[in-house]
Amino acid sequence: MAARLLIRSAVRAAVTCRAAPAPALHRCMAGGIPTDEDQATGMEKIVMRAMKEGVDPYNMLKPKSYAGSKQDPHLVPSITNKRIVGCVCEEDNTTVVWFWLHAGEPQRCPSCGSHYKLVHHDLPH
Ligand SMILES: [Zn+2]
Asked: Where on this chain does Zn(2+) bind (predicted)?
């Protein structure tokens, strides 16, 4: 008797499971694999947006080259009114000439005479 009850309940359970099949599995990423822009948050997102607009908010890219003359000085971004600048006066030099660059008129490197000018830079945050 007990065996019959067990068999009936097992058959009933099997039938109900078949009647209501589990929903088919589908991929959550129906729109494709998310890109870096989709997944970025916070500072990474700010930087990615700025890079798309062509702005380099944290000076991560190679600086533009300038002639270093008085008319076309090397532009040095700074968030304050002064910054230490290192000048490798000639391409093969093994030493760097360090000097303070102050806001205002372009200054010359004490060794080679290249001109540097401080430009104000605002951080994006
Ligand atoms: Zn120099």
From this structure: 87, 89, 109, 112
Q: 74-87: per-residue pLDDT in tens? A: 999 899 999 999 99
**Is 17 part of any known ligand binding site?**
no
Whole-structure pTM value? 0.56
- Is residue 109 a known part of a binding site? yes
Domains, the chain, in order of start with CATH, read: 37-120 (2.60.11.10)
- The torsion region of residue 91 among left (phi > 0), alpha (psi -120 to 50) and beta comes to alpha
Q: What's the CA-to-centroid distance between 110 and ligand 1, angstroms?
A: 7
